[in-house]
Amino acid sequence: MGIKTYIERVTDDLYVLRVDDANIEFFEALWEIPEKISYNAYLLVKEDHVVLFDGWKAEYSQLLLESIGKVIDPRGITEVVVHHVEPDHSGSIPEIARVSEKAVFLGHPLAGRMLSSFYGVRRFKPLQDGAVADFGVKARFIHTPWLHWPETAVTYLEDEGVLLSCDAFGSYSLPPLFDDQADFTGLERAARKYFATVIGHYAPFVSKALEKLNKLGVRPQIIAPGHGTIWRRNVDQVLKLYANLAGEELGGEATIVYVSMYGNVESAAQLVEKALKERGLKVNVYKFTDKARASMGDVLESISRSKIVVVGASTYESEVQPLMRYLLGIICEKFSYRKKLSFLVLSPYGWSGTGGKKLGEALRGFGFSRVEVVEWEGRLTDDVSKRMLDALERVL
Amino acid sequence: MGIKTYIERVTDDLYVLRVDDANIEFFEALWEIPEKISYNAYLLVKEDHVVLFDGWKAEYSQLLLESIGKVIDPRGITEVVVHHVEPDHSGSIPEIARVSEKAVFLGHPLAGRMLSSFYGVRRFKPLQDGAVADFGVKARFIHTPWLHWPETAVTYLEDEGVLLSCDAFGSYSLPPLFDDQADFTGLERAARKYFATVIGHYAPFVSKALEKLNKLGVRPQIIAPGHGTIWRRNVDQVLKLYANLAGEELGGEATIVYVSMYGNVESAAQLVEKALKERGLKVNVYKFTDKARASMGDVLESISRSKIVVVGASTYESEVQPLMRYLLGIICEKFSYRKKLSFLVLSPYGWSGTGGKKLGEALRGFGFSRVEVVEWEGRLTDDVSKRMLDALERVL
C-alpha cells in the first residue's frame, strides 16, 4: 500500500514530518485500529542547529531520511532529542545514527540506557530535567515519567510556545495535520482512545505531569504530539481533556460489553441497555459474538466517558469465559484509578455458576467496590430480569 | 449469504441433516474459524418411529424443519434424542417442540433440567445410562460425561453399527458429508482443532469414554458426529486419533507462538525456530504482530502435535503482555493434562523484566515442570542468543 508522508511548517523554524502507517492493524500488537495511526517527528532548523525530535517506526526509516532530505541534508543533523524510546518513535534511530554521523542523541539518562540496549547507539548525552538547551531557540527539556515510559520527556520551545509532547496528547487515526482543519469531536475521540489504551494505566502520572508543566509556566500555543493531529486551535480543550481523563471523576455514560456465545447474554444485555436508556443515560454497547467482535480500544474509550460498566459473559468450563477474562483484565488494569466506577456483571450458566462470581471477585480485587453480580441458570426468565434490574438499581 | 443444507441417507433408515454455518466467524464466540463449521442432526425413520437426534443452531430452526419435511412431516416426529444441550445443537429445539407436538424429548436427566431452564421445554423423559430403546432398531444410550458437558451422551444403533456421537469426533470446516470423499489428512486436522479447542480441557474424560464404549462392545462401522464429516472409511483411525489426543503422550513437533510489538520478540523466535529445525523438528509458528494475528485454535491444534512450546512476549506495563496472558491462559487450561510438555519463554524488556518471570510462574502453577525462561534487556545480542539456545538445550 502507498504510504503517505507529510512535511509542513509548524512555525518558521519547526517542521512536522509525519508518516501515516497504513500497514498497521494492531497498535502495540494489541489494540485493533482500523482507523490506523501516524508517527510524527519534528525538525528544527535554526542558525547552526538541525535538531530532530523523535522519529518513526523502523520500517519507515528510509522514508524518514527522504523526508528530512526535502528540508535539509540529514547528514547535517546536529542533535536528536529522544523523548521516548518506544520503537514506534525510535525505530528509525539506527538509520539516523548511521547517516547523521555528527548528531548527538539527547534525552533522559534512562533513554540513553535504552538507546544502548535497544540499538547499540551510544552517542548519547543526558539532559537534566528542566535544563534549557540552546538550539538557536530556547528548548526546555522536562521529564514526564510514565507518560508513557519511565524515560519519557517533553520539550517546550519557549520562544515559539510549542510543546513537543510525544505520546502525550497523541491520537489514533489519520486526521488532518492541524486540528483547525477538522471538528474537535472526532479528534477528541481519537485522542481519548489513545489515552485509554496507551496512557490510561499511568493516569496518576499524567496529573502530576500537568501540574509540573503548569508550575514551570508552560503555556503552549501549540501542542505537537508524536501521533495524530497537531493542536493549535483546541490547546485549552485538549489540556482540559487530559486533566479530565487522568482524574478520578467519572463520565456520565454507560458502557455495556459482553461476550455472547448463543444469544442468552445478549438478551440480558439488551434488557439492561433499555433500562439504562430509560434513565436517560447514553449507552455504548460492545459485542463479542459468534459473528463479530468489537474493538477493545473502543471499549476503553467508552469507559473513560462512563460511570457504569455492564459486563456480560457466561460461565465457561467452570471458569470465567476466556475472552471476557482478557477484556476485563485490561479494563481493570487501565481503570484501576477510577475506583468509583460501578460494575454490573451478568452471567448465565448451564448447570453451575462460577464465572460471574469470579468476575465479581476480580473486580473487587482491583479495588472496585460498587460491584453487583447476577448469575442465573438457563434463559432469561421474568424472575431473572427482575433480579437484574434490582441489581442495576443498587449499583447506579 | 446463501446457507447450504444437506439431506442424505447414512443407512437405509438413517438420514443426516446438515447445515453449513457460513455466517459464523468465532465458534463459541471464542475460536476464530474462517474455515466455518457445520451442524449435523440425524433422523431415523423406522416402523412407527420418527426419531430426531440433536438439531441445529437457533437461527437455522426453520431450515431444519424444512429439511426434515423433505424426508417426512415433522409433525410426525415421535422422539427427539438430546445428546447435548449446547445451543449449537439444541437451539432449534423450541421450534421442534412447537411443531412436533407429540414428540417426547429424551436424554440424560441433566439434559432434562437444561431443556427446562434453557427453553422451558418439559416434555422430557430421562434415559438411563446403558438403556436400550426400541426405535424400530435397537438404540443404546450411553452417558459420556464432559464430552463435552456433564449431560453429554451418545447413542449406538447396534443393528446398524452407527455411533451417533454428537461433539465427540466432530470437526471444524465444511468437509464432504462422508470421509471417503476426501483425504484423511485435512479431515484429521479439522478434527484435531475441534478437539483441542472444545474438548481438550476434558481429555481425561475422553479416555474414560473410549474405555466405556469399548467395554460395552461398541464397534462402530460408522461414526456420525454433530459437526463435520461422517466417518465410515477412517473409523479406526479417528478412534485412534482420539485415544492419542486424550492421552498424555506428546507429539514430536514444536509450536512457536509469540506476540511481537516491534520485531524484537520475532527475532528471538526466528533464532529458536532455526535451532529447532536444525534438530530435525517440524516447527509451526503462530505470530501475533502489529500487522496480523494467528488463530488461537490453530495454535492449540499444533500443540496437540508438539513436545515443546516456545512462547514469546515482552513485559508490558510491568506485567505479562495482555494478549499473551490470554493465549497462555487458554493453552494451560487446555493442555494441563499433558504435563510433560516443555516450555521455553522468551521475554525482552525495556528497563525491568517481570513478564517473562510471571509467564514462567503461571506455567509452573499449572503443573508444568519443564519450563525455561529467558529474559533480556533490549535487543537480541550474541550473549542473549547464547542464553536462549542454552535454555532450549535444557528443555528439549
From TrEMBL, chains A, B:
Residues 254-396 form the Flavodoxin-like domain. Pfam families: Flavodoxin_1, ODP. It comes from the Archaea. InterPro entries: Flavodoxin/NO_synth, Flavoprotein-like_sf, Metallo-B-lactamas, ODP_dom, RibonucZ/Hydroxyglut_hydro. Gene3D superfamilies: 3.40.50.360, Ribonuclease Z/Hydroxyacylglutathione hydrolase-like (3.60.15.10). CDD domains: flavodiiron_proteins_MBL-fold. Signal peptide: none annotated. GO terms for molecular function: FMN binding. Transmembrane segments: none annotated. Coiled coil: none annotated. This is FprA family A-type flavoprotein.
